[in-house]
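tokens incoming
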């Protein structure tokens, strides 16, 4: 049986920015399904995005809680991104190094805001983003073909839930 792995190149990360899907590349070591690769690419892109936005929160946020939340995003998603990249490397999946076009657009819009307007927009983004992340990680924890990817997805759900809970708590502060 031939074993395939999909390769994704830097800024052209197909799952995150709607580009074309890469062709499978034969490898002798591992099998990563298209679904698994798409999850990993999106998860790494999401972690990168959370880190970038976390740095923005540290500088543009008005409320101390928003700044602390941004610090938590930088810390946790930097570590999570490293873990995701390590697993991806072991599966011979090449991960993107840049934000998707959509993420870059959202970053630029958020970067224009300061103070209370920034806090409100950032916290809303974090609530929405973490709800989506939890849903995707839950699906991957059940449906990923690769057992290591399933395990990693399942292990990250409690952390993402904690982030969501923290972001939802901040919504009362930034009204």
């Amino acid at each position: 049986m031939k074993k395939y792995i999909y390769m994704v190149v830097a800024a052209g990360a197909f799952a995150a920015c709607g580009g074309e899907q890469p062709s499978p590349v034969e490898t002798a070591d591992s099998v990563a399904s298209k679904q698994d690769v798409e999850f990993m690419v999106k998860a790494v892109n999401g972690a990168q995005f959370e880190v970038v936005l976390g740095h923005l929160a540290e500088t543009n946020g008005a409320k101390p809680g928003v700044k602390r939340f941004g610090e938590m995003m930088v810390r946790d998603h930097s570590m999570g991104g490293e873990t995701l990249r390590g697993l991806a490397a072991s599966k011979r999946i090449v991960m993107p190094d840049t934000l998707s076009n959509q993420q870059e657009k959202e970053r630029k819009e958020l970067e224009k805001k300061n103070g209370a307007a920034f806090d409100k927009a950032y916290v809303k983004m974090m609530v929405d983003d973490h709800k989506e992340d939890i849903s995707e990680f839950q699906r991957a924890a059940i449906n990923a073909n690769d057992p290591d990817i399933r395990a990693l997805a399942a292990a990250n759900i409690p952390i993402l839930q904690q982030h969501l809970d923290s972001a939802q708590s901040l919504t009362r502060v930034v009204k």
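note: The domain at 33-90+99-173 is CATH 1.20.1260.10 (Ferritin).
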